[in-house]
Write a structure and sequence with these properties.
The chain is mainly alpha-helical. The chain has 16 helices and two strands. It has helices at 3-11, 23-50, 62-78, 80-111, 116-143, 152-181, 183-203, 221-243, 250-274, 280-303, 309-316, 335-354, 361-385, 395-422, 428-450, 458-486; strands at residues 321-322, 325-326. Strand 1 (321-322) and strand 2 form a beta hairpin. Helix 5 (116-143) packs across helix 15, helix 6 runs antiparallel to helix 12 and helix 10 (280-303) packs antiparallel against helix 16. The protein is globular. 55% of the residues are buried.
């Protein structure tokens, strides 16, 4: 019996955290503080890069800032793939989460230093730390439940609400400090949040039992030696970039990373399907994972523009005052998590209430795509009214983010849960990394779209994005039944 099976069996009778295993509370707050740190910094990132030097910013052109933003946010999630492998083969998910949190905190504190090398170092540390933490904390959540436990999707929805509680608070604190006091104080506040999350995680580890303690399949000594060589080479390459031994600009790195990202995804799925040893059921489920992956890439390419094109629209084209109260534009970044906190319990209750009538995961994905596309259709109309420099009402962004939130609740926690159910047990962390790889590709694509902000008319830009999401939702609706058949009894 595997460690994951033992953990799930022992947790099956545990209902002490709102009807769920007590360990969910530890992971809830760990991820809450990690997302506080991430979204607190993300709310400021593109605004800081495009702010003039006289205002304390970097003074980057929007095209350069968008490329760096897309590279950073995509790398954060792309790193979950090797992070999942490291947990599966070397250190286990529990230690991966701990080490990842330490790196993330160090990254945010680096960005609190007013120097360009420290800025880039901070981004790099956050990428490495999130790669270790983000996917593996969700794997531990999955190990708290047996695969046939009906609380599973609801548990992921509660976990997802913790994510968004941190994301809601973060722009209000870090955004205010960054935009109204000092950019670097805002970045430092994000580091404080991650530190609090680490303390909570260590103190609450006893509630997790054996979940995530051991690697799913330990690496051989030869494999460990190869891994050590690869890590050493990567560190030397990174050092050469930071010291300027290898002369390359951030935009060139972003362009190269985009090619590697897409190529890497293709190579990974090719390797996955060509690998021997899969049963017929496992191979069909891997095909379902691929189709859900493609749909998720499209969804995230639109949804994750919240921190880029929609953030710029909120800062430059939307009023930042209500009834005489003026607020930083980064406060708009709190709308989505606020809506998720509001509606996550509703969606969690809905899936349980529907019981056997609950829509399949592919159907939920189609709804998510239709919602995100419709949200951009709303903001495209707002862009028409603001085409002549007139700042539009905040309600346009409110409605857009509300639609995006409904789409996210239908797709994201459901997608995480589906990956843990569809993945063969021996590559559970790796497949969760695949889920975050879809977010990575979506973030990179969204970042590249943001480079067009200002060079293309906003009604056209947002209109094309809207049409892509709605069309993707229609296609996914048509494919829902065939994909469900591939899932082999998993809903």
């Amino acid at each position: 019996m595997t460690a994951a099976t033992i953990a799930a069996t022992s947790a099956s009778a545990d209902h002490s955290f709102f009807g769920h295993p007590r360990g969910l509370s530890t992971l809830f707050f760990t991820e809450m503080w990690e997302r506080f740190s991430y979204y607190g910094m993300r709310a400021l990132l593109i605004l800081f890069m495009t702010a003039p030097a006289a205002a304390g910013g970097l003074g980057f052109d929007t095209a350069v800032a968008g490329a760096i933003y897309g590279l950073y946010t995509s790398s954060v999630y792309m790193a979950c793939l090797p992070g999942g492998w490291i947990a599966d083969r070397l250190i286990g998910a529990r230690r991966a989460v701990l080490y990842g949190g330490i790196l993330i905190a160090a990254g945010h504190f680096s960005m609190a230093v007013q120097a360009l090398p420290a800025f880039y170092l901070g981004l790099t540390l956050i990428v490495l730390g999130t790669g270790l933490l983000k996917g593996n904390v969700a794997v531990i959540v999955g190990q708290l439940y047996a695969k046939d436990d009906q609380r599973r999707d609801a548990g992921f929805s509660i976990f997802y609400m913790g994510i968004n509680l941190g994301a809601f608070i973060a722009p209000l604190i870090c955004g205010y400090l960054g935009q109204r006091v000092n950019w670097h104080i805002g970045f430092g506040a994000a580091g404080v949040g991650m530190t609090l999350g680490l303390i909570q995680y260590v103190l609450g580890a006893r509630n997790l039992g054996d979940a995530g303690v051991l690697p799913a399949q330990s690496l051989s000594p030869a494999g460990r030696r190869v891994t050590a060589i690869v890590v050493a080479a990567a560190l030397l390459f990174a050092a050469a970039l930071f010291t300027g031994i290898i002369p390359i600009t951030a935009k060139q790195i972003a362009d190269t990373a985009g090619i590697l990202l897409i190529g890497g995804a293709i190579a990974f799925f090719t390797w996955l399907f060509l690998s021997p040893g899969w049963t017929t059921v496992e191979r069909r489920r891997l095909a379902a994972i691929l189709l859900l992956f493609i749909a998720a890439c499209l969804f995230w390419s639109e949804f994750e523009q919240a921190g880029s094109t929609l953030n710029l629209f909120g800062d430059r084209a939307t009023r930042t005052s209500i009834l005489g109260w003026s607020f930083p534009s980064s406060y708009y970044q709190s709308l989505q998590p606020l809506f998720i906190i509001t509606f996550a319990p509703v969606f969690a209750w809905l899936w349980i209430w529907l019981g056997p009538r609950e829509p399949s995961s592919p159907t939920k994905f189609s709804f998510g795509l239709l919602c995100v596309g419709s949200g951009f259709a709303v903001i495209a109309v707002a862009a028409v009214f603001g085409a002549n420099g007139v700042k539009v009402s905040p309600m346009w962004l409110v409605v857009t983010y509300l639609l995006h939130t409904w789409g996210e609740l239908a797709l994201s926690p459901v997608g995480m849960s589906a990956m843990t159910k569809l993945a063969p047990a021996r590559i559970g962390g790796l497949i969760m990394g695949v889920w975050y790889l879809s977010i990575s590709i979506g973030n990179f694509t969204g970042g590249r779209i943001s480079t067009l902000y200002g060079s293309m008319s906003l009604p056209t830009l947002f209109g094309v994005v809207a049409a892509s999401g709605i069309l993707g939702g229609v296609v996914m609706t048509l494919l829902a039944r065939p994909i469900k058949n591939l899932m082999g009894g998993v809903n």
